[in-house]
Amino acid sequence: MTPLEGIIREIIVTEGPMRLDRYMALCLGHPEYGYYMARDAFGEEGDFITAPEISQAFGELIGIWCAAAWQAMGAPVSFNLVELGPGRGILMSDLLRAAKVMPGFSAAANLHLVETSPRLREIQKRRIGAGAKWHDTLATVAEGPMVLVANEFFDAIPIRQFERHEGRWRERCVGLVGESLTIGLTEAESVAGQGAPGKDGETIEFALARSDIAGEIGARLARHPGASLIIDYGHFISAPGDTLQAVRKHEHVPITAAPGECDLTSHVDFEGLAKALRKGGAATWPGITQRMFLLAMGLEARTAALSGLADERMAGMLQRAMARLVDESQMGHLFKVLAATSPGLAMPYPFGQP
Asked: Across all residues in the chain, what is the average pLDDT?
């Protein structure tokens, strides 16, 4: 039993079954035993690997996109460059290096990183330097023009789940059966599920915290010139489905396994995210797959340039990395890209391309 499992058991014994969003929040963010609080979970030696660690070209192309967005918003002499959930800081490091091709971008950028993990903050400081400002939430980032990036951030925001049973929506919660943590249904019909269509056995997911964050981004884009780029795995159209998953050492494990020692995520509902951004006041553009975005931004040319400077072994690794990012059977189709801008700004490239 992990230390966090003992804490969760005590809460359930005292208060009854625990909602999934609370369970996720404890597993990922408990101050002492939360998954992200004291560990570096990224990379081949960790539990999962993200796109910036697969190829430097990923962050570089996002840097080019951010530089173009800054220019499109009038190239303000000072703006906030914000990343939500920066991980090891690899994406931001590659982004900043590539964006130097745009004169004035680096001098104008005020770097803000939204990161709750003390361990990851230290890694980010070593990679990026002390010039950035760190925040627990977006709310403490100063007002002003903004370019925001969020790669694999929204998937880790806690969700609630509801299952249709005997014609009624009931909430999924974590409870105890004997000595084991298990996921079951509440007896009463959920208020959150009332009125939603569905069939017995179907599951729907609500991520209110995601909508709150997206709404805040939208409100900032409405108040000041700016753009945001959100990349994550998920679906374009809202639909029923159980997408909650736990990963440990690159393998899927039960949701209730080793609380605090497994990554818990769910697929992002991009339709819902876009609605929240628009409700906040931003303009959103039709989402595209990661494959479409990276290829349109020049991934093949950048990989070829890097390969030309590498030996045969490294060139092969670069080609495999590109395939991992864009092949439809790997990350290319599962991962989606959504852009939001201040109202009145033109649709950013490559959105809207054939």
From this structure: 93
